[in-house]
Design goal:
mainly alpha; two-stranded antiparallel sheet; 5 strands; about 50% helix; about 10% strand; binds zinc ion
């Protein structure tokens, strides 16, 4: 599934986001080895540092991750259905290869987008907290949840109620999936937030 660029520019000077990625990226990725997590982390860090769009980062990630267990089971199910329909084994092979490639593509895009958004958003929060500590932001500074237009179009049940909700910088947002320091609220979430001094 092709996707447009993220709705905000990558700040190549986002050192906090890079640090976050260095430390946390790929923590939530399941069914991969520690080595693969390290590789994903390296890709996410470079994406942020060099402004590589998530879609391109996903291509790199695709080369190092496999399918999740549910996806692998879905491929097996699909294979069974095709054989039941009496489709020739050679054709079945082509079709399941295509299907698993599609699932892998989707997984890598999910990982790239979610990990990059997590690092950028968490990095922004760390920058704001430091700014508050240094006196550049007042004690009453609030973070504001910004829902991107495509989340609204997609009628995302998690993000839509969060539109323009604000909370004090050091508090959690109360979201449909529980308290969160900010976006992303779910895999592939495109929400961001801003700060009101
Ligand atoms: Zn959403």
């Amino acid at each position: 599934m092709a996707s447009p660029a993220l709705p905000f520019a990558f700040d190549s000077t986002a050192p906090d986001a890079q640090r976050v990625a260095q430390r946390y990226a790929a923590r939530a990725v399941t069914n991969v080895s520690a080595e693969t997590k390290r590789a994903i982390r390296a890709i996410v860090v470079r994406s942020i540092r060099e402004g590589i769009p998530p879609y391109d980062a996903a291509r790199l990630i695709r080369a190092i991750v496999g399918l999740t267990k549910p996806a692998a089971l879905a491929v097996m199910r699909y294979r069974g259905e095709l054989l039941e329909q009496g489709i020739a084994p050679g054709r079945v092979r082509t079709l399941i290869e295509r299907y698993s490639a599609k699932l892998l593509r989707e997984r890598s895009i999910t990982i790239a987008r979610t990990e990059i958004m997590h690092a950028l958003n968490e990095g922004a929060r760390q920058t704001w907290k430091q700014a508050q500590k240094d006196g550049y932001l007042g004690d009453g500074a609030r973070k504001v949840w910004i829902v991107t237009p495509d989340e609204i179009l997609a009628r995302c049940p998690i993000c839509r109620p969060m539109e323009d909700v604000s909370v004090p910088l050091n508090e959690n947002f109360i979201t449909p999936v529980g308290p969160l320091p900010g976006p992303p609220a779910h895999p592939r979430c495109r929400c961001t937030h801003s700060i009101e001094p």
